[in-house]
Amino acid sequence: MNQAAPPFPASAELANRPFVRLMRRVLPRWMSRHRLPFNFYIHLLGIPLAVTGLVLLFVPDVPWYWGVAGLFVGYLLQYIGHRTEGNDVGEWAGIKRLLGLRYVGISPRWAEVDAARAGEDRG
After folding, report:
1. Residue in 104, 91, 85 with CA at minimum distance from that of residue 39
2. Residue 42 CB: number of other CB atoms within 10 A?
3. CA–CA gap between residue 51 and residue 89 (Å, rounded)
4. CA–centroid distance for 60 within its chain
5. What are the pLDDT digits (tens) for 10-65?
6. Among 2, 27, 38, 75, which is least packed by CB within 10 angstroms?
7. At what angle do helices 64-85 and 37-56 cross, to 10 degrees?
8. SS3 of 66, please?
9. What share of the chain is helix, strand, coil (3-state, %, to 5)?
10. Which burial class, exposed, middle or buried, applies to 78 when counting CB atoms under 10 A from its CB (0-12, 13-18, 19+)?
11. For residues 102 and 117, what is the distance between their CA atoms, to the nearest angstrom?
């Protein structure tokens, strides 16, 4: 008799999928840059709005200004969140890094907290 395959892949099989590996690498870094609840939740609005605005730019029946407005408002929300957090918006930090300019990856206040925690763990 043949056994039916399980409905969900085993956890080891799931962990080897490219998307899961990418999320395990990227998500902790993203979470370290979005520690304040306000910044995190405003990104839950801003990111989908910016992506929707980008998609609307390519929909022929929708006026172009709706796409531009979605991109602008979505990024504005993310900018406000990062100003509150004390670090640069991710894309801007990447551009600044490529140009050799100074950027704030993780807010200094969180870097101080992380350094203090690391000192407690050692001693």
Report:
1. 85
2. 21
3. 16
4. 29
5. 566 666 788 888 888 878 777 777 778 888 899 899 999 999 999 999 999 999 99
6. 2
7. 160
8. helix
9. 70, 0, 30
10. buried
11. 26
